[in-house]
Structures are given as structure tokens and as C-alpha cells.
Design a protein that fits this description.
Radius of gyration of chain B: 20 Å
Helix content of chain A: 10-25%
Low-confidence stretches of chain B: none
Number of helices of chain B: 8
Number of helices of chain A: 4
Number of strands of chain A: 9
CATH topology of chain A: OB fold (Dihydrolipoamide Acetyltransferase, E2P)
Largest sheet of chain A: 6 strands, antiparallel
Mean pLDDT of chain A: 96
Distance between the termini of chain A: 24 Å
Number of strands of chain B: 19
Oligomer: heterodimer
Shape of chain A: globular
CATH class of the domain at 11-53 and 143-226 in chain B: Alpha Beta
Shape of chain B: globular
CATH class of chain A: Mainly Beta
Order of helices and strands of chain A: EEEHEEEEEHHEH
Order of helices and strands of chain B: HEEHEEHEEEHEEHEEEHEHHEEEEEE
Helix content of chain B: 10-25%
CATH architecture of chain A: Beta Barrel
Mean pLDDT of chain B: 97
CATH architecture of the domain at 11-53 and 143-226 in chain B: 2-Layer Sandwich
Strand content of chain B: 25-35%
CATH superfamily of chain A: RNA polymerase II/Efflux pump adaptor protein, barrel-sandwich hybrid domain
Low-confidence stretches of chain A: none
Strand content of chain A: 25-35%
CATH superfamily of the domain at 11-53 and 143-226 in chain B: Probable tRNA modification gtpase trme, domain 1
Largest sheet of chain B: 6 strands, mixed
């Protein structure tokens, strides 16, 4: 079942509807509830390869529903340490739990200062309200 | 949203149900309610209802109506009796497909053509320009609502008896007098119910009250592609001929109709390319417009909810159109393997 709309307080957000959970010099990335709801049930996650480099504001992966393909924008720069294989195997995990089991990649941060430029939950909610 | 989008008689009912509305062929239509996948599976396992009131209804009447239709449609209209229906093509001089449609014979000299929403004006103009003395072509699309109810439980839920495919009769469904057509676009048992526009909401609500799931155009597309029903504008167009599209079975090539000569030539020479169905061998979803290595193009592609794999159709060189041929599809710059399969892609008895 699809998750209820929510935007956790402890995440940083990118206006392209991506989130980052910064943990020391690493971060876990995913797409927000709003993004998965707009797409519908995901049926494919075209993941980056471990070791590849993410550039903030550039596409690093694709997610697809039955009807549409969407680029996934990197909220932060860094190197991919791990891809969530569960989402590769069962993309609908993102719809069920976008901030937990449905995370997409874990990265080593390239520039720790970048996170300051992201939106906090209040600013992101305001951004969603305008969509 | 454009203010110029047309609305079917059921529009407000869709919005009230929480449907996600999208523009389609100039209409504001529901693409999904609960979700494309659950709606698709509802039709495959039980029953789903689709508002297809955006489709066009053209009446062709008069003493010369049958002869006229025989001259412009590819299939043998003369084999259709009162109460019968037939899938057929409106063809141009080069054998291209102006529209694909179902012709219903209402009575002697009275025919109803149900045409694609996006081709309603084109088909009407095409027929009107060629309308001979003794025939009247009339666009009656605004007068009707059309609800498709499809799925293995559809007849039972509506309290209808079985009847042969491609027949129709007047009858009552939930108190609404409607034309009950044994036709559809999903590969499942079912009916299409054509009723006066003002009765559409009553009929729609009554159908849903029987436990039929409301379904949007998203599921309609995945259902039809699994069973390889072509979509005009994608798989068949004025530039694609019926033989290459695999629709030779609806062309009575021993008769004369617009484009028959051209189609006979294509059949005799063998088409250079054919519309093939394929299944992805790697995790990837083919989409319309993607290139197929060796000179082909995807015309329809999606994720198959029944098979849980990427599927599609596309034109490929005839030599590559046979089952088990390996294809390579350019999925946004990445080559992905696919395999040609016999149509339909989804075969009911094997699932």
C-alpha cells in the first residue's frame, strides 16, 4: 500500500523532490512522498553503479512508473557507496516507505558544505504547497 | 489545465471519485483512480469499468449505406447481420489507416461506427466528403455515453447472460436502457454499454455499485498492449499499411475498397517491415519512439502488470519479426535486449 503523505523533520530537501539524510561524511538519498505520488507505483529503478560520482542538481538515476519516466536529481555531490538492491528488485518499496526501506543510494559526501543550501522541512513543505 | 478540454458526461463523477485527470486527445480524462496496476489486475481477475465516452459515434444510414461502407472499409461489411459487429479499418488510397473502428449493424441500412476519440473529426470528414446519394453520415457523439465493463466477472456482476463476441442488443442494465455491445479493448470477456448521454452517470454509478472497479486510461493502455490490440496514432497511422501492421485479417482483399490495390501489392511483395510484439529480456521499459537496432522503432511500450516485465510493439524489418528473434532497444542511450514473441504477449490460458 502507498504511504501517507509525510515529510520527516530530520531530512534536507531538494526542490526537485529529493531528500538527503546526512550522517557524518555520508548521506542516504531518496525521493519524497510528493515525487512518488506524482509518478504512481514504481516499476523500475535504473540505478547508478557503485563507485560512480553524483553531481549536485544533476540526474543520477531514473525511476519509472507504468506511464512515465523521471530523472532522479542528486541533492548533494558525492560517490555512490551502495545502491538499495531492494528497490532495484521491488521498486514499489519506494511507494510504500519513501524515507525508510525505499531509500535509493548511500553516498560519501563530496562537499560537506552543500547540505546547507538544501531546504529544511518547512521550506520544502511550502514548496510542495505551491505545486 | 487548458479550458478548452472537452468533458464526457461522467466527468464530475470521475472527479468525485478522486480520479487523476489528464488531457487525452483533447479530452479531460481519468488516467487512474486507485492506480494503474491494481486497476489492470482488477480487469484481468474480476471486472473493471472504463468511461470511453470520448470515443466518437458516427451513424451511417440510408439505402446505399452498406454499399458505401463496403467501398470505404477494409473488412466485409456484408457479412455483418442485424445485431452484429465487426472490427474494420478506414483506409486511404495507399492502404494507410485513417482509423480503426467497430461497425455495428443496427438494422438494414442503419450502421453505427465507433471511432477513436482523436480521429472523430478526421473519420467524419473522410466519410462526409465521400458520402454518395442515398447515404447520410451523422456525427452523434454528443448524444451518447459509453461505458466499457470488462473482466471475467463482468457479465455476472451486471446480471447479463453470455452472448457471442461482436454482437449487440438493446437491454437494461441497472434500470438504464442501453445498447449492450459484446466488444472491448482488453482481451477479456465484457461489454461496452452505449446509452443516452443523460443516463450515463446513472449507468456508471450502477455499474460501480455492483462491485466493478473504476479504471482509467492508464490501465486501458496496458491491458490492450498485453493482448497486442493496436493503438491508432502509435502502432497504426495513415502512413502504416494494414498488412505491415498485421491487420491483413480485417482486409477483404478479394473485394474492392479504398486502398485495396495498394494492400494487395504489399501482400504480394511481402511487407518490408512488420509490427512485432516483444518482451524485454533485461530490466527496462520500452517506450514509444525508442530505436530498435537494425532499423526499427518502438510504437508502444509499457510495463506489463500481468507479466511484471517490459513489453512493447514496434516495426522491425520483416526478417526480424519472427518469434524468438533477439532485438536490441535503445533505452535512453543504453542498449537493452528484447525478444520477439507471438501475439498476443499475454495469453489468458497460460496465466
Amino acid at each position: 500500500m502507498a504511504a501517507e503523505e509525510s515529510y520527516p523533520d530530520d531530512l534536507r530537501y531538494h526542490p526537485e523532490h529529493d531528500w538527503a539524510r546526512v550522517e557524518g561524511d555520508e548521506a542516504v538519498l531518496g525521493i519524497t512522498w510528493f515525487a512518488q505520488d506524482a509518478l504512481g507505483e514504481l516499476v523500475h529503478f535504473e540505478a547508478p553503479e557503485a563507485g560512480s560520482t553524483l553531481r549536485k542538481d544533476a540526474s543520477y538515476a531514473e525511476v519509472e512508473s507504468v506511464k512515465a519516466v523521471s530523472d532522479v536529481i542528486a541533492p548533494l555531490s558525492g560517490e555512490v557507496l551502495e545502491v538499495n538492491q531492494k528497490v532495484v528488485d521491488e521498486p514499489e518499496t519506494v511507494n510504500e516507505d519513501p524515507y525508510g526501506e525505499g531509500w535509493l543510494v548511500r553516498i560519501r559526501l563530496g562537499d560537506a558544505g552543500e547540505a546547507d543550501a538544501l531546504l529544511d522541512v518547512g521550506a520544502y513543505k511550502a514548496h510542495v504547497a505551491e505545486q | 489545465m487548458s479550458a478548452t478540454l472537452r468533458q464526457t458526461p461522467l466527468h464530475d463523477a470521475h472527479v468525485a471519485l478522486g480520479a487523476r485527470m489528464v488531457p487525452f486527445a483533447g479530452w479531460d480524462m481519468p488516467v487512474q483512480y486507485e492506480g494503474v496496476i491494481p486497476e489492470h489486475l482488477a480487469v484481468r481477475t474480476r471486472a473493471g469499468a472504463f468511461d470511453v465516452s470520448h470515443m466518437g459515434q458516427l451513424h451511417v444510414d440510408g439505402p446505399a449505406a452498406q454499399a458505401f461502407l463496403e467501398s470505404v472499409l477494409s473488412n466485409d461489411v456484408d457479412r455483418v447481420d442485424d445485431g452484429g459487429a465487426q472490427y474494420t479499418l478506414l483506409t486511404n488510397e495507399t492502404g494507410g489507416i485513417v482509423d480503426d473502428l467497430i461497425v455495428y449493424r443496427l438494422s438494414h441500412g442503419c450502421f453505427l461506427l465507433v471511432v477513436n476519440a482523436g480521429n472523430r473529426e478526421v473519420a467524419y470528414d473522410w466519410l462526409k466528403e465521400r458520402e454518395p446519394r442515398g447515404v447520410e453520415v451523422r456525427d452523434a457523439s454528443e448524444e451518447y455515453a459509453l461505458v466499457a465493463v470488462q473482466g471475467p466477472s463482468s457479465l455476472e456482476l451486471l446480471g447479463l447472460d453470455e452472448a457471442p463476441a461482436f454482437t449487440h442488443a438493446m437491454g437494461e442494465v441497472a434500470g438504464v436502457e442501453t445498447m449492450i455491445c459484446r466488444t472491448g479493448y482488453t482481451g477479456e470477456k465484457g461489454v461496452e454499454l452505449l446509452c443516452p448521454a443523460e443516463d450515463g452517470v446513472t449507468l456508471w454509478n450502477a455499474v460501480l455499485d455492483r462491485g466493478v472497479a473504476p479504471c482509467g486510461l492508464g490501465a486501458r493502455d496496458t491491458l490492450r498492449l498485453e493482448v497486442c490490440y493496436p493503438l491508432h496514432g502509435n502502432d497504426i497511422t495513415q502512413e502504416t499499411d494494414a498488412i505491415s501492421a498485421g491487420l491483413g485479417w480485417v482486409c477483404a482483399l478479394d473485394t474492392e475498397f479504398t486502398g485495396a490495390d495498394a494492400l494487395r501489392r504489399v501482400k504480394e511483395d511481402g511487407p518490408e517491415r512488420r509490427l512485432a510484439a516483444f518482451v524485454m529480456e533485461e530490466k527496462a521499459i520500452p517506450r514509444q519512439g525508442m530505436a530498435i537496432a537494425g532499423g526499427g522503432e518502438v510504437t508502444s511500450g509499457t510495463h506489463s502488470p500481468s507479466l511484471d516485465v517490459g513489453i512493447g510493439m514496434g516495426y522491425v524489418p520483416s526478417a526480424s519479426a519472427t518469434a524468438d528473434t533477439e532485438l536490441e532497444i535503445d533505452v535512453r542511450g543504453k542498449p537493452r535486449r528484447a525478444r520477439v514473441v507471438a501475439k498476443p504477449i499475454y495469453k489468458k490460458e497460460t496465466h
